[in-house]
Amino acid sequence: MDFQVLNKIIIENKSFLLTTHVNPDADAIGSEIAMYRILKSLGKDVCIINHSTTPYNLEFFDTKNIIRIFDEKKHKQLFDKADVLIALDFNRANRVVSMQKFFVEFKGIKLCIDHHPDPEDFVNHYFVDDSYAATGHLIYDFIKQTKLVDLSYEIAYPLYAAIMTDTGSFRFEKTSPQLHRIISELLETGVDPEEVYDKIYDQSKRSKIKLLGRTLDTLELIDNDRIGYMHILQSTFNELGALESDTENFVNYPLSIENVVLSLLFIELKDGFKVSFRSKGNIPINEIAANYGGGGHLNAAGARFHHSIMVDEMPKIINFTIEFFNNYYQEQNV
Questions:
Q1: Which of 29, 58, 62, 304 would suit a FRET pair with 158, their CA atoms being 20 to 30 Å apart?
Q2: Integer Cα distance of 25 and 54 in angstroms
Q3: CB–CB of 31/39 below 8 Å?
Q4: Within this chain, domains 4-201 and 207-332 share the same CATH topology
């Protein structure tokens, strides 16, 4: 990845807007905070504007409340005046939801820094490579290649969290020897891995744990117990006072059952529903998501369904998944 173009754009421009995808995770928020601190250290004017509120377990990243939630009346002028708009950890315009119109119509320089495959044609410059473990990983390489700023504790902290979470605490495929060397360097700045893990994963609200229990109660295994799926109704969120962001990583639980290699989680939304897909090995779950206008990685993907009724569509999606899954194995055994 050649970051010289990004380096030049940062040096030559003064004002920057940063944003990330709906329902941001730690890679999204961590990458925003790291890039914010990089730009601020260079004397740039920087704002972070997101569609979604920051999940409560990630609020520790933003103790100074620098992340703003998009309000057209308040923030339209920022889109009108900024020199550069940077998309972090997403590569499709619809992932910013309420800001999509302003993103598409932005007159300045638009950049995308991301590690997801198949980017949409929606910005001027792409710094996208799906061989990276996380968007935070890309930002680390940008720092090391350009030497534009020093790798301080304040920058290393959110980058460590971004990489740690997107690698499943360093257990997913892209956890390489080189990545561990990067993590070693981040830790040398003073980052405490126990502290980061505790803040992200071990400070859950009671409502989240109750929601997990309800979700696991819906678990069904099909296709010789190789596929597991679960669902969450909007009424369950309301009853427990839980949030959509509380469901982060729920979809991975079926994969911990012996023989299960593919998992689906259906989540009913106020307007439609979404499905998260996970798989083991080389099963290209992103191809299933793409069939429904979604996307993601080989083993982790998702799709949203607007103006659709989840209970009506679930059987169709499950049947398509079974058919895709069995065709995949037939092709592998030819």
A1: 304
A2: 8
A3: no
A4: no
- Architecture (CATH level 2) of domain 4-201: Alpha-Beta Complex (3.90)
**How far is residue 155's CA from residue 272's CA, in Å, rounded to a whole number?**
38
Return the CATH fold of 207-332.
Diaminopimelate Epimerase; Chain A, domain 1 (3.10.310)
Structural domain spans, the chain? 4-201, 207-332
pTM metric for this prediction = 0.91
